[in-house]
Amino acid sequence: MTVIFEKTKGLTDKTFHYCPGCTHGVIHRLVAEAMVELGVLENAIGVAPVGCSVLAYNYFNCDMHEAAHGRAPAVATGIKRVHPNNFVFTYQGDGDLAAIGTAEIVHAAHRGEKFSTVFVNNAIYGMTGGQMAPTTLVGQKATTAPYGRDEATAGRPIRMSEMLATIDGAVFVERVAVNTPANIRKAKKAILECFKVQLEGKGFGIVEVLSTCPTNWGLTPVESMKWLGDNMIPYYPLGNFKKPEEVK
Amino acid sequence: MAKVKGNVTFDEDLCKGCGLCVSVCPVNIISLDTGRINKKGYYPAAIEEMDKCIACTNCATVCPDLVITVERL
Amino acid sequence: MTKVLMKGNEAVGAAAIAAGCKYFFGYPITPQSEVPEYLSRELPKIGGVFVQAESEVAAINMVYGASGSGARVMTSSSSPGIALKQEGISYLAGAELPCIIVDMARGGPGLGSIQAAQGDYFLATRGGGNGDYRLIVLAPANVQELVDLIIDGFDLADLYRTPVMILGDGMIGQMMEPVEFKERPEKNLPVKDWATVGTGGKRKPNIINSLFLEAELLEKHNHNLQAKFARIRENEKRVETYNIEDADLVISAYGTTSRIAKTAISKLEKEGYKIGMIRPISLYPFPNEAFEKINPACKGVLTVEMSAGGQMIDDVRLSLNGSMPTYYHGRSGGMVPTPEEIANKVKEILGGDK
After folding, report:
1. In terms of residue numbers, what domain contains A113?
2. Is the pLDDT of residue A9 over 80?
3. How far is Cα A20 from Cα C155, in angstroms, rounded to an integer?
4. What is the tens place of the pLDDT at every residue in C253-296?
5. Which of A11, A22, A26 faces B62 most closely, judged by CB atoms?
6. Are residues C191 and C296 in the same domain?
7. pLDDT in tens, B6-55
């Protein structure tokens, strides 16, 4: 008997506090596994956001910073400039990256800062109880959009990957989803490629991961995976928007 | 060709009964055991017919809580 | 050591480099843009890192990351930009991270004016951001002192694991004075084993954090911070006093205003007045004991600040604790008081009694 799937040492022993079926657990695992597989866990320094994953600093088995809301790319800039040979990553949600932190992520990409960002997009603000996010879909209900997101007053949701891909300093931009095992495996590949781009010193990389929020969507975990596939993927198409000529 | 067979173990007290593993098993052998609750108060996922497991690792891949270990026989 | 004629803002950069600081994250704002400009030229020459951030908010967060990773690091700005940094400064204080923040203060509130002012005293000494914390705040009165306090400041920041603010103003940033970079004895500073440098597989992860969701834990953390501030108050007060044992009136002023006050005092002495002076150099911890040493027959303390309503005067009043009257003379908006104005105010208070 060979073990073909077991818990990675990239995660600590702390039990995840996330809701049942929350895909943060899946994504944390992919990031941790990638760091172990690339041999960078012992040299990694990560930056946690403000959001449901604010406690990510307790789960990743490497040095971590807790950052102010949205500021992780600036914090990561400070870390990577001091320690250019360390592996540096940020892990951020849609409020953190696409609302308050939009200037920080755009400028980190613009400067081509050599760290990697994992952007968890679940089209809602989870931690604070389900308010509308910049990524909430038109017509989708949220506690601050009780009649559904109204395009006339709130605009259409923001597609961060497409926007960041227009910036030269962003050399790896890919959007993935974790709603099926097949998509989860593709997400893992994208995260590995994104992290490799940092190790090759090529520039800024980001993987946007479409994720679920069963609690605030008001659906079961299984229904949420279906909702993601039916509603989010059509608006946020999966795929690679940019990558360097060769990612070894 | 011999069929791949697997053995799945659940670290039961980590399970939050989300049901994702149940939904992705291609041989439909995982279920939430509604006959008991774990330390967290959830119905934990479990497999009765382990001999049908094909070690595809779908369950472990989708599990958000590191509950599942998969071995290939 | 040779003396060099330097502009204050450039001396800020030179002092940081002399203190072994190789990382600067900043943003242009009048009247301190020469600080990032100087460092953008000089840091690459010594293998240091200069980043012009997209905003003062980004800059202070870069400082947070760099400091948490163990580096000596500095940022600078002026009043409106320092206001932007308050969130980041609160996080730095809560996570107990050392750094230097230089404020070349200008007229306010809001966008204000670009000339010197002293309207940031409250912001600097009362924390400024959310929560219970204080910064060590040092106020130079000339460019040499600016250099010395910055170099001392880096040591204090490392010693206490706390941010240190250097509170200057537009005048001190723009003026040129001779500066000497003196040899200093090696300081015995604690090792930064808390910094994030990668675990190397040899230790548990280090976490830089100010979040404590359990209230009991946060209260304990706050007790530790308060104990630190008590040690700072015990050991780090700095003040210059003049003739307070014999004065009929004491003037209290800090920074460039203190130099104008000194000129006023010279004028008054020539006319037979006996005027003392208390110049706080550390604004936090405030040198309150100096005020207790004023001769009891003194008729009061006149605080002079480039502030509309007076800010340091609150600490003067707290220090005097009602023992004698307090008076105020201020200019604001970027206006600078003259020695004549101050002398006339003294005469008005003393009613012609010499």
Report:
1. 24-242
2. yes
3. 48
4. 999 999 999 999 999 999 999 999 999 999 999 999 999 999 99
5. A26
6. no
7. 999 999 999 999 999 999 999 999 999 999 999 999 999 999 999 999 99
Fold entry, domain B6-72: Alpha-Beta Plaits (3.30.70)
DSSP per-residue string spanning chain A: -EEEE---TTB-SPPP-PPTT-THHHHHHHHHHHHHHTT-GGGEEEEE-SSGGGGHHHHBSSEEEE--TT-HHHHHHHHHHH-TTSEEEEEEEHHIIIIITHHHHHHHHHHT-S-EEEEEE-SSBTTTTSB--TTPPBT--BTTBTT-B-HHHH-SPP-HHHHHHTSTTEEEEEEEE-SSHHHHHHHHHHHHHHHHHHHTT--EEEEEEE---HHHHTS-HHHHHHHIIIIIHHHS--EEEE--S---
- Residue C154: give its domain's CATH number: 3.40.50.970
Contact C197, A86 (CB under 8 A): yes
Indicate the pLDDT class of residue A248, thresholds 50, 70 and 90. very low
Pair (C195, C211) in one structural domain: yes
Chain C residues in contact with A71 (beta carbon < 8 A): 57-58, 61, 64, 88
- State how many domains chain C has: 2
Contacts of A147 (CB under 8 A, 6+ apart): A141
What letter would DSSP give residue B24? H
Q: Quick one: C199 and C302 in the same domain?
A: no
Closest CA to C201 of A29, A41, A6, A8: A41
Task: Tell me which chain B residues have a C-beta less than 8 angstroms from the C-beta of A212.
Answer: none
How much is the pLDDT for A176?
98
Q: Which residue has tokens 């940033």?
A: C173
What CATH number does residue C247 fall under?
3.40.50.920
Residue A9 resides in a domain: no
Facing A184 at nearest CB: one of B14, B55, B61: B61
User: Average pLDDT of C41-48?
Assistant: 96
Split into its structural domains, chain A has a count of: 1
Q: The domain containing residue C253 runs over which residues?
A: 240-350
Subunits adjacent to chain B (3 or more Cβ pairs under 8 Å): A
Query: Mean pLDDT, to the nearest integer, of C244-252?
Result: 97
Residue C76's DSSP bridge partners are: C102
CA nearest to C316, candidates C298, C330, C303: C303
CA distance C280 to C118: 14
Based on the fold, state whether residues C344 and C247 are members of the same structural domain.
yes
What percent of chain A lies above the pLDDT cut of 70?
99
- Residue B1 banded pLDDT, cuts 50, 70, 90: low
Q: Are residues C162 and C291 in the same domain?
A: no
Confidence category of residue C178, pLDDT binned at 50, 70, 90: very high
Query: How many angstroms separate the CA of residue B68 from the nearest CA in chain A?
Result: 7
Chain A residues whose beta carbon lies within 8 Å of the beta carbon of residue C51: 77, 81, 111
| Closest residue of chain A to B65, computed from CA coordinates | A25
Question: Does C244 have pLDDT greater than 80?
Answer: yes
CATH code (residue A129): 3.40.50.970
Q: Model pTM? A: 0.94
Closest CA to B22 of B46, B49, B40, B50: B46
**Residue C127 has what pLDDT?**
87
In whole angstroms, how far apart are CA C7 and each of C142, C173, C337?
Answer: 11, 7, 22
3-state secondary structure of B45: strand
